[in-house]
C-alpha cells in the first residue's frame, strides 16, 4: 500500500509540472506567427522553460512507474488537464468558470473510480527486445498516419502526441524495472534499444504537442490526456500482465469512472476553447478610435469627419 501512495504522490506532482509546461507551450504557440515551425522555437527561452518543466514531470513520472503499474499511474496523468485549468486562468488574468469547476469535479470523481480498480502492486514484468521493437514500429506507423504532411495542426497531432507519450511511459517502465531490479546486464541490446525508443518518443510527443497547441490549449490537451493512458494501458494489459482488481465486477466502476472522466474532460476542453475564442476575438478586434466614434445628433462637416460640435441655437430640424 505504501508503494501505491508513493506512486500517486509522485504522479500528482508530475501532473502539475506537465500542466505548467502545457500552459507555457500554449502561450508560446499563441504568440508565434501561424505556420511557424517548431524547430524555430528552439532559440526562444520560453521553449526551453517548457522543456525543463516537461523534463521534471518526466523524471517524477519515471519514479512513479517504479512504484505503481501503468494502469494506476497513467490515469493520474489526466490531472494534468485539471491542474492546467487554474494555471491557464491565472496566466490569462481571469477566474475559473463554473463549467471548468464542473469538469474538474467530474474528472476527479472519474479518476477516483478508476484508481479503485487499478492494480496496486509494484510492476515486475518487462518487455522483451522483440516486443519493444514491435511496439515501436506500430507506434511509428500510427503516428505517421495521424501527422502526415498537409494535415492541419489540431486534434490529430494531439492524439499522436498522447500515443507517443503513453508508449514512452510503457517503455520507461521496462527500463526502470530492469535497471533497479537487476534482472539482467545494464548495457544489453534490449535496454539500449528501449532507451533510444524512449528518447525518440518523448521528444516526438513534445514536438507534436507544440504543433497541436497552435489551435489552442483546451481540446488538444484533452485529447493528449485521454490518448496517453489508453495507449499505456493497452501495453500494460496485453504485454506486461497487468490486471484490474476485483475481476469482472470491477468493470462496472471502471466504466462509470471512465464515463465521468471523459465527460469532465469534454467540459474542460469546451470551456477552455470558449475562453480562448473570446480572448482571440478581443485581441484581433481593433479598439474604436476617437475619430470613429459616432455621436448621436452630430452633423458631418464637408470633409466627412465626425465632429462633436452641437447644433447652433435656434436651429430647428427640417427648418429653413
Automatic annotation (TrEMBL):
The keyword Transmembrane helix applies. Residues 1-21 form the signal peptide. Keywords: Membrane, Signal, Transmembrane, Transmembrane helix. Residues 301-320 are annotated as: Disordered. The chain crosses the membrane at residues 45-65, 103-122, 128-146, 158-180, 186-209, 221-241, 247-268. The keyword Transmembrane helix applies. This is Integral membrane protein. The lineage of its organism: Bacteria, Bacillati, Actinomycetota, Actinomycetes, Kitasatosporales.
Amino acid at each position: 500500500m505504501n508503494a501505491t501512495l508513493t506512486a500517486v504522490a509522485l504522479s500528482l506532482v508530475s501532473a502539475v509540472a506537465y500542466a505548467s509546461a502545457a500552459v507555457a507551450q500554449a502561450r508560446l504557440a499563441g504568440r508565434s506567427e501561424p505556420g511557424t515551425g517548431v524547430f524555430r522555437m528552439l532559440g526562444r527561452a520560453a521553449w526551453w522553460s517548457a522543456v525543463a518543466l516537461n523534463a521534471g514531470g518526466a523524471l517524477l513520472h519515471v519514479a512513479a512507474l517504479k512504484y505503481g503499474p501503468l494502469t494506476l499511474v497513467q490515469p493520474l496523468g489526466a490531472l494534468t488537464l485539471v491542474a492546467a485549468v487554474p494555471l491557464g486562468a491565472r496566466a490569462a488574468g481571469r477566474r475559473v468558470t463554473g463549467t471548468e469547476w464542473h469538469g474538474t469535479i467530474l474528472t476527479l470523481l472519474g479518476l477516483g473510480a478508476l484508481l479503485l480498480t487499478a492494480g496496486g502492486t509494484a510492476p515486475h514484468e518487462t518487455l522483451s527486445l522483440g516486443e519493444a521493437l514491435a511496439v515501436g514500429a506500430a507506434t511509428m506507423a500510427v503516428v505517421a498516419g495521424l501527422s502526415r504532411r498537409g494535415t492541419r495542426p489540431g486534434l490529430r497531432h494531439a492524439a499522436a502526441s498522447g500515443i507517443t507519450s503513453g508508449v514512452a511511459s510503457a517503455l520507461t517502465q521496462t527500463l526502470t524495472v530492469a535497471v533497479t531490479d537487476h534482472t539482467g546486464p545494464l548495457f544489453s541490446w534490449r535496454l539500449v534499444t528501449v532507451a533510444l525508443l524512449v528518447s525518440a518518443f518523448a521528444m516526438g510527443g513534445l514536438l507534436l504537442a507544440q504543433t497541436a497547441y497552435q489551435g489552442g490549449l483546451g481540446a488538444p490537451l484533452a485529447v493528449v490526456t485521454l490518448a496517453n493512458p489508453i495507449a499505456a494501458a493497452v501495453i500494460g494489459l496485453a504485454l506486461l500482465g497487468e490486471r484490474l482488481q476485483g475481476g469482472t465486477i470491477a468493470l462496472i466502476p471502471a466504466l462509470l469512472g471512465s464515463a465521468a472522466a471523459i465527460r469532465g474532460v469534454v467540459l474542460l476542453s469546451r470551456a477552455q476553447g470558449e475562453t480562448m475564442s473570446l480572448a482571440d476575438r478581443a485581441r484581433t478586434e481593433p479598439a474604436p478610435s476617437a475619430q470613429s466614434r459616432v455621436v448621436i445628433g452630430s452633423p458631418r462637416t464637408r470633409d466627412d469627419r465626425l465632429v462633436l460640435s452641437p447644433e447652433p441655437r435656434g436651429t430647428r430640424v427640417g427648418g429653413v
